[in-house]
Amino acid sequence: MPILDAPIVSARYFFPRAVEVANPVQVDVAGGLIIESGIADPLERILMRARPHELGATLEQLQEEAARFLDHRAKLAATNTRVLVMHAANDNLVLPSNAQRNAEWSSGELVLFERGDHNSIYFYNRDRILDEVARFVT
Questions:
Q1: Pick from 16, 3, 32, 29: which is nearest to 133 by CA?
Q2: How far apart are CA 87 and CA 85, in angstroms?
Q3: Phi-psi region of 107 (alpha: psi -120 to 50; beta: other; left: phi over 0)
Q4: What is the CB neighbour count within 10 angstroms for residue 65?
Q5: Main-chain dihedrals φ then ψ at residue 37, nearest 5 degrees
Q6: Residue 95: how many CA atoms within 13 Å on its side-chain side?
Q7: What is the helix, strand, coil percentage profile of the chain, to 5?
């Protein structure tokens, strides 16, 4: 069993917060970052569910705040650590394009699983996910 020099940061359900917590300074001291089924652009997700006026803001205000606090592209591009991005190819809740962007922005490794979707990725791919994580941390 390998001994890790630094912790691995993993993000799933709270990916926006995980990237906020795992800012470039913190991630650079981590042994790596694993993103599974992560959202690339939180504002894009928000605008799928609500219109700016429903949130008491203009589109420009939301874009400004998102750029200030939720710019995953800049945060991932600024990290100097290994990144593993895993996602179900059939995820229709958080589309695989999110994984592609997260991997591109972080210069990370992308693993797409052919089986499962957003909620069943682990059920259908448990062994392979665990193998990918084990490979990543060794």
A1: 32
A2: 7
A3: left
A4: 12
A5: 60, 35
A6: 7
A7: 50, 15, 35
Tens digit of each residue's pLDDT, the chain (138 residues)? 444 555 555 555 434 444 444 455 455 556 789 999 999 999 999 999 999 999 999 999 999 999 999 999 999 998 888 999 999 999 999 999 999 999 999 999 999 999 999 999 999 999 999 999 999 988
Report the predicted TM-score, pTM, of the whole model to 2 decimal places.
0.80
Q: Report which residue type is found at 95.
A: L
Question: Which residue do the tokens 């939720």 mark?
Answer: 70
Residues in the chain: 138
Q: Which domains does the chain have, with CATH numbers?
A: 8-137 (3.40.50.1820)
| Greatest Cα pair distance in the chain | 53
